[in-house]
Specification:
By secondary structure, the protein is an alpha/beta fold. It has 2 domains: 227 residues, Type I PLP-dependent aspartate aminotransferase-like (Major domain) (Aspartate Aminotransferase, domain 2, 3-Layer(aba) Sandwich); 137 residues, Aspartate Aminotransferase, domain 1, CATH 3.90.1150.10. It contains 12 helices and 13 strands. The chain is globular and about 75 Å long. The relative contact order is 0.16. The model has no long low-confidence stretch (mean pLDDT 96).
């Protein structure tokens, strides 16, 4: 029986040595590693500024505040994401307005957004779901036409890019600001941590103050504004610097594993695989497959149960945000409100995906998946 986790970080002796060096120093916070890490991330995103924070969620919160989003405002976003995309609007008293998704990219359906814009709309939070950059160019143009702040939730897309007639555009380079996250299953990791990237001098300065308890170049106990303890520590930043230096290697390893999955599963008539066009260069946060129309929503859950019983990690990425209990209680959302999202969500599952996966391990995961699918189909035949 295989023992395949859903994800695991890629840490070498270089990262360990960098963290130990910090631990042996006298500076564990507010030292030189954070600015060094910020410079690396700004370069990856093609931005002038980067502001390190304690998580991607903290980054989204800071950008909301710095963009002037607050009570009475609406923020358009996707219902198919991690909850932080919508929570960032709730943090500042704004209302998330969901727009259904494109079934190919799994990002928000750009063609549906204009119908959701009202006089109260202040911002759009655009998510690169699973590191897929589809629709970002069009979203940026739409936000500019309507004079809305485009906040790029790039937490799943570090290192990806889009090819345009004007040249390559990095994930994180769209709109007023982008936010990365570095949880252990991401393209690079700092354990916990996030990064705001922007070309806006004022927004960068405001976010630096907001992450540091509202300090603004004043004495340590003087606070210009209400702020938060969202700083990133030196150990995490040192880890991030080395991970950034290894980014080409890490991204290539993720592409290799994704290609192994595609090559093996592309002929399976029961599965829909990720769709990436020639101009969209995903950075492969996770590898997610979807059961086709022959299956009912409960079938996906049974497939996952069988996979886990076989020692193969998996998860249901993502449950619809609007059907999370607190969202239903607060806004009265119900099943059927965003049918594409709900349909996709009930049939998707993430397979084991990490840089060091071997062809044999990918094969084991695929064998287990195909076996689970056949078991579910046989069980269904027995019921009818």
């Amino acid at each position: 029986m295989p023992n395949l986790p859903l994800a695991k970080p890629d840490i070498t002796q270089r990262e360990i040595d960098a963290v130990v060096e910090v631990l042996q120093s006298d500076t564990l916070s507010l030292g030189p590693r954070v600015p060094e890490f910020e410079a690396r991330c700004a370069a990856v995103a093609g931005r002038r500024h980067a502001v390190a924070v304690s998580s991607g969620t903290a980054g989204l919160h800071c950008v909301m505040v710095a963009s002037g989003v607050g009570p009475g405002h609406e923020v358009i976003t996707t219902p198919f994401s991690f909850v932080a995309s919508a929570n960032s609007a709730l943090f500042v008293g704004a209302t998330p307005v969901f727009v259904d998704i494109d079934p190919k990219t799994l990002n928000v359906d750009v063609s549906r957004i204009e119908a959701a814009i009202t006089p109260r709309t202040k911002a759009i939070v655009a998510v690169e779901c699973f590191g897929h950059p589809g629709g970002m160019v069009e979203l940026e143009q739409l936000a500019q036409r309507h004079e809305l702040a485009l906040i790029e939730d790039a937490c799943e897309g570090f290192g990806g890019h889009v090819t345009t007639p004007a040249g390559d555009r990095a994930i994180g380079s769209f709109g007023r600001a982008g936010v990365f996250a570095f949880y252990p299953n991401k393209q690079i990791t700092t354990g916990e941590g996030g990064m705001i990237v922007t070309d806006d001098d004022r927004l960068a300065a405001d976010c630096r103050s907001l992450r540091n308890q509202g300090r603004d170049g004043m004495a340590w106990l003087a606070h210009q504004r209400l702020g938060y303890n969202y700083r990133l520590d030196e150990m995490s930043a040192a880890l991030g610097v080395v991970q950034c230096d290894r980014l080409p290697e890490l991204l290539e390893s993720r592409r290799r594993v994704a290609n192994l999955y595609v090559d093996r599963l592309m002929t399976n008539r029961y599965l829909i695989l990720p769709t990436v066009t020639d101009d969209q260069h995903a950075s492969w946060f996770v590898f997610v497959v979807r059961l086709n129309d022959l299956f009912e929503p409960g079938d996906r859950d049974e497939v996952m149960r069988l996979l886990r019983a076989d020692g193969v990690g998996c998860n249901n990425y993502f449950p619809p945000i609007h059907l999370q209990p607190y969202m239903v209680e607060k806004f009265g959302f119900k099943p059927g409100d965003f049918p594409v999202c709900e349909y996709v969500s009930s049939r998707t599952l993430a397979l084991p995906f990490f840089t060091t996966m071997t062809a044999r391990q990918v094969g084991e995961a695929c064998d287990a998946l195909e076996g689970a699918i056949e078991t579910v189909l046989l069980a269904r035949k027995g019921r009818f």
